[in-house]
Amino acid sequence: MCTGIRLECSNGYVAGRTCEFGFILDYDALFLPVGTQCSAVISPTSTGKTWTSTHAVVGVATFSAMAIMDGVNDAGLMAGAFYFAGQSQYAEVAQADLSRALNPSELTHYILTTCETIDEALAAIAEITVVGVPVQGWGPVAPPLHYQIIDAQAGCNRTVGTQDARYASVPSGDVQDPSWSRVVYRESSDGPISWCRMAGVRRSG
User: Fold this and answer.
1) What is the dihedral of CA 170, 182, 174, 194, to 10 degrees?
2) 112: Cβ–Cβ under 8 A, 6 or more apart, which residues?
3) Could you tell me the pTM of the whole model?
């Protein structure tokens, strides 16, 4: 399980993360300018949602895909995908409207290329569907991902995940709402350093 990191500095914030895998990921550094044409990959022969980027983004992609899984855009919005086995459920591709469908590795890419703030990102998430399809390099089934979002104000971190193909935002601190089936987000501060440990989003009801 990976860890999201946020450092508070005198002139702003620095966001980062660990990547705790038992194998080496094939990374590529990508830069996408404003106006880049984007298209979701649902299978080798089918595509999903298409859009044009409204923000420039720099970040990291994996396994030669053109989807930034961790990065920051020109508005200071940061988003990252975190792997946590057994903690994600996605929409069935056969039942999804492919015109609004993304594969699990493309959610951060979509957020970073179209959004400026956490609120905009959460609104954008409500308009798309993440479908459970294999992603190049990640094995024969959909990778179980959840996502960290930090905006330029960094006053709020949000961790979002999937349960029955729905998304939910998680407030800072331990979740007390009984509709959440477990504590999914914990933040601790020690001087200027804050860390958050993310454990997948599950919501009942």
Assistant:
1) -70
2) 55, 57, 59, 68, 71, 72, 73, 77, 79
3) 0.76
